[in-house]
Amino acid sequence: MLDWKPEYSVGVAKIDTQHRKLFDYVNELEQAMRKGQGRAVLDKILANLSAYTGEHFATEEELMRRTGYPAYAQHKAAHETFVKRVREFEQSHKAGEVGVTVELVS
Fold this sequence. Notes:
CATH architecture: Up-down Bundle
CATH topology: Four Helix Bundle (Hemerythrin (Met), subunit A)
Structural class: mainly alpha
Number of helices: 4
CATH superfamily: Hemerythrin-like
Largest sheet: none
């Protein structure tokens, strides 16, 4: 389980709330895996994660642009890598590959 810790806070309530939501998706998948139901919920989790990261990253990137965040380019690249990885998980799952749930939680 991923536990939210105060040191994860970026000091922006909206962003912190969104980060916690991302933790919730990972925790939901992990709980399902513990019950032997990981593959059964993976479609929903991946769809939610894909949609929500798009929303979250857009919010975060707009805020970084507006405030002149100095590491914007690096952070945006990290977002793009994450989105690409989620898409790879979706493709692997649709192809019936095993181990996707464990890899995603990791």
